[in-house]
Amino acid sequence: MDLRDHKESRRLYFLSLAGAVVILLGVRFHFFPNDANQPTWKGTASQTVDGLISAAVAAILVGIGYVYFSNRAKAIETIAVRPRQIADEIAAAAKGADCWKLRARTASYFVRETLPILAKSGAVDIRLELLDPREQSLMTLYKNFRATHADAPKWSAERVKQEICCSILVICLFKNRYPRLDVDLRLNSSFWILSYDISKAAIFVCGQTYGDTAIKLPNTSEFYRHFDDDFDASFGHLESIQPKLAEELTIDNIFSYEESSTVEAIVRMFADLNIEVTPADAAALLAKVQEKHHHT
User: Fold this and answer.
1) 80 touches 48 (CB < 8 A)
2) CB within 8 A of 125, min separation 6: which ones?
3) Within 13 A of 28's CA, how many CA atoms are on the CB side?
4) What is the pLDDT of residue 79?
């Protein structure tokens, strides 16, 4: 307990010590007055009482120095962001941002909501870390984890892979449409739960389930540096991938081309990344892009 933060405890502390000093002074001068001819035991007792008085006075002085003159440790600033506020907070941070870091399992929310805002901000350095869809055991692990949540029936290992591949496709389409986006996309074969959205202004730490409260760490918070360092340490050793489609295929016009040729181009793109996607899978990805992204 910090006395600087508890007024009543502080008052009790000083009153108790002051009362002890008064009582000890009374005992000292009433029962053990200064007398050169007093017995030895009285002299020893008076010295003991003098020591107790000195200790109590010292405790009062130290307490005063601590409460009123010591430097308070810098508070670690964190902000709880309620579920209804998360989208607005992240959107506000993304507007005008010139860099963005993301660690997310599938990045579905990012490509649907945040990426379109960043694309309109001009030149943006984007670093993305996703689960590796080539690792079937990782897809199964995530599906099994989701089995503990209310939306478990909606999830399968195939859906996890599809969500990630859809995000990779959308990122590629945005890069074609907005060439000033500098995207470094990397895949992680490890599993994690919390996702990070990192701008220069703040870090948003979001949970797994829709409706969870998020944590916002302003760049003035000590934790900002810790989470940013954690991201950089993980990101630095991951494999960078470069998904490429024909430049004419963008997020704006992909549905204006013949579907069969577009499907073929998507299959080739993922094959170059060593990610197995069949023509049927590619067609499903196209449908998912059209379904989920209001900007198409």
Assistant:
1) no
2) 98, 99, 100, 182, 184
3) 16
4) 87
Long-range contacts of the stretch 10-13 (C-beta < 8 A, 24+): 10/67, 13/63
Distance of CA 124 to the CA centre of its chain: 21
Coil, helix or strand at residue 38: coil
Rounded CA gap, 192 and 158, in Å?
18
What is the pTM (predicted TM-score) of this model? 0.73
Nearest to 197 by CA among 48, 92, 44, 84: 92
Question: Pick from 171, 225, 182, 233: which is nearest to 203 by CA?
Answer: 225
- Please check whether residue 174 is in contact with residue 251, taking contact to mean a CB–CB distance below 8 angstroms: yes
Amino acid 113 reads E
Phi-psi region of 251 (alpha: psi -120 to 50; beta: other; left: phi over 0): alpha
Radius of gyration for the alpha carbons in the chain, expressed in angstroms and rounded: 32
Helices (H), 207-258: 222-235
Tokens coding 152 = 């478990």
Given pLDDT bands bounded at 50, 70 and 90, which one contains residue 154?
confident
**Residues near 17 by Cβ (< 8 Å), separated by ≥ 6?**
56, 59, 60, 63
- DSSP 8-state assignment for residue 254: G
Helix (H/G/I), strand (E/B), else coil: 222: helix
In tens, the pLDDT along 73-98 reads 555 678 899 989 999 999 999 999 99
What mean pLDDT comes out for the span 183-199? 95
Tell me what pLDDT residue 295 has: 41
Which burial class, exposed, middle or buried, applies to 111 when counting CB atoms under 10 A from its CB (0-12, 13-18, 19+)?
buried
Closest CA to 134 of 174, 168, 184: 168
Q: 204: part of which helix (H) or strand (E)?
A: strand 202-206
